[in-house]
Amino acid sequence: MPMWSVLLLPPGLLLVSGWAAALSAACQAHAAGRPVTVATIGRPVQEATRLLVIRRRRTRHPDALLWRVGGATLLMTAVLAAAVVPLGDVPIIGSEVGVVWFNAAETLLWAALWLTGWGANSVSGLVGGYRFLAQALAYELPLMLALITAAIGAASLDVVQIAAAQDRLWFVVWMPVAFAVFLISALALSFWGPFSQPSGADANGGVMAELSGVDRLIVLAGRYAWLTAAAGMSVPLFLGGGSGPLLPSWAWWSVKTLAVLGLLVLVRWRWPLVRVDRFEEVAWVVLLPAILVQALVVSVIVVF
Amino acid sequence: MPAGLAMADRAPDRDGLQLDVLRIPWGPALAWWPAGLVLTSRMHGDVLTEVEASRIGAPEPAAAHWRQAAQVYGPARAGAAARLDSLSRLLAVAGWEAERLRAQHIRDDLLAGEPDLVLIARLERLAGRVGKSRTLAWMTRGIGIVDETDVANRYLSWLTESVDAVRSGTAAPGTDLPDEPLRLLPRILGGLELSAMRLVVASLDPWLTGALPHAGVHHR
C-alpha cells in the first residue's frame, strides 16, 4: 500500500471502533428497556465530545507522566497492531512477521494498563492494574499458542500468506480451539465483557476510576480500538481473509470483521463477569492444555 | 511524606508474607453500596483483614421508604421491588450489567403500577436467566456464609421470593439474620479479597439498608 495510507489508519480504526461503541450503546438501551433511537446510537459521539471539553479531575500527587503514557500506549499499540491486518488482500504495513508484530504490540498492554492504574495514586486504580496483570498472565500463553497454531497451518508468519493459505478451507474449520482461544484472548486483552474486572464496578472503576476528560476518552478509545484490531486480526488468521464469492476481497473482509466485532460486543451484554482468580485457574488448567493439543494436531496434519 | 500521604507500612498478610498494608475506609458513599455503611480495613494488596464496620447517618436508611411503598403498592409488590433493588446492586458489583439494567427496569415498573401479568412474565424470565446462570453461581459460591447460606443462596432466594410475591399477591416473609449485620460483617469479611467483600456486602444489602428486618429489630 502507498505510504500515505498510514495516515488513514487511525481515523479508520476509530471509525470502526465508533461503530462498535454505538452497537454497545444500543445493546445497553435494549437491556434497560429503553427504545433504541438515533440518539442512543449517537451516544458515543456525544460522550466523546463531552469528555473532550470537560475539565479533568486530578488526584493527590499522581505520577502524571507515566499515567498519561499508559493511556496513550493503549491507543497507540492498537493502531500498531491494526497496521499489519490486511484490508482484504494488502495490509497498510506489509511484514514477513506480521503475527509476531501483533503479539509484540499486545504485550505492551501489560505495561500500559498497569501504568494507567498505578499512575493515579489511588487504591482503586492500583487494584485494577494488578487485576489486569493477573488476567494477562492467564490469557497470554494461550493467545501466543493460538497465533502460532495459525502460523503453523500456513507455514508462515506473514499474515497475508496465512490468509492466502486458506483458499481451500478456512482455518476455523480444522483448528476451532485456536479460534475460540483467540476470541477469548481478544475479550481479555481489551478487558471487555466477561473479563472486564480490571475496570470493574466493585473497584470503583478499576483502571478507569480516576480517569476523566481527555485521559478517559483516550483509554476508552484504546479499549474499543483493541477490540476492533483483534477482531480484524481474527479474519485473516482463521476466517479466510477476504475470500468469498461475488464481492471483492475488501468487502468480504469488512463483512467478516464487523461480524466478529459485533459478536465480541454482544458477549458483554449476554454473559456475566468471570473473576480474574477463577479465570486464571481455567486458563492454565483448561485453555492451555487444549491449545497445546490443538497445536500438536495441526503440526501433525501439516507434516503429513 | 510526599504530599502529606503516609507511606504504606509492612505487616504479615493472610499467608504470612510481609506485604504493604494500607488503612482504607470503604464507604459511606460508593456506587452500589448500602448508604452510610463504613468499613475500615487493613488492606494487603486487595485482601482485607481486620475489618471494622460502622455506620454514618440513620440506622436503616431505606426502611421508611419501603414501608411507604408497601402502603401505596401493597406489601407483595413492595417486597418484590425491595429484593430486586438489592439484587440489582449485587448484579452491579458482580459485573453483570445487562441483567442489572433489566432488574432495575422491572423494579421501576413494579413501583409504577404496571399490570401484574406482564411483570410476572418478565420476572420469571429474569429469574430464569440469573437463577440458572452457572457462572454467577460459581463466582458467588462459598463466600459470606451466614447461618449456612452463602451469597449464592441469598440472591437465589430473593429471586424466588420476588416471583412468588408478585404471582400470589402475598408478601414473602424475609429470612432473618442471626445477628445484627454490623456485628456480622467483621466476622465474615476477614481474609476476603475486594471483589468477594463487595459481593458479601451486596448480599447483606437488604438487611443493611433496612428493606428486610433482621433479628433484634422491632418495627414500631
Report on the structure:
The complex is a heterodimer of chains A (304) and B (220). Chain A has 304 residues and is an all-alpha fold. Chain A is 69% helix and 1% strand. Chain A has a two-stranded antiparallel ribbon with strand order 1-2. Chain B is of the alpha+beta class. Chain B is built from 9 helices and 4 strands, in the order ββββααααααααα. Chain B is elongated and about 60 Å long. At the A-B interface, helix 1 and helix 6 of A face helix 2, helix 3, helix 5 and helix 8 of B.
Question: What's the topology here?
Answer:
The complex is a heterodimer of chains A (304) and B (220).
Chain A: H1 9-31, H2 38-41, H3 43-53, H4 64-83, E1 86-87, E2 90-91, H5 98-118, H6 123-154, H7 159-164, H8 171-174, H9 176-189, H10 213-238, H11 249-268, H12 276-303
Antiparallel strand pairs in A: 1-2
Chain B: E1 9-12, E2 18-26, E3 37-44, E4 47-55, H1 63-73, H2 75-94, H3 97-110, H4 116-131, H5 134-140, H6 151-168, H7 181-189, H8 194-203, H9 205-209
Antiparallel strand pairs in B: 1-2, 2-3, 3-4
Helix pairs in contact in B: 1-2, 2-3, 2-6, 2-8, 3-4, 4-6
Radius of gyration of chain A, taken over Cα atoms and rounded to an integer in Å:
19 Å
Low-confidence stretches of chain A: none
Query: How are the strands of the largest sheet of chain B arranged?
Result: 1-2-3-4
Give the topology string of chain A: H per helix, E per strand: HHHHEEHHHHHHHH
Oligomer state equals: heterodimer
Beta-strand percentage of chain A?
under 5%
Question: What overall form of chain A do the CA principal axes indicate?
Answer: globular
Mean pLDDT of chain B: 88
What coarse outline of chain B follows from CA principal-axis ratios? elongated
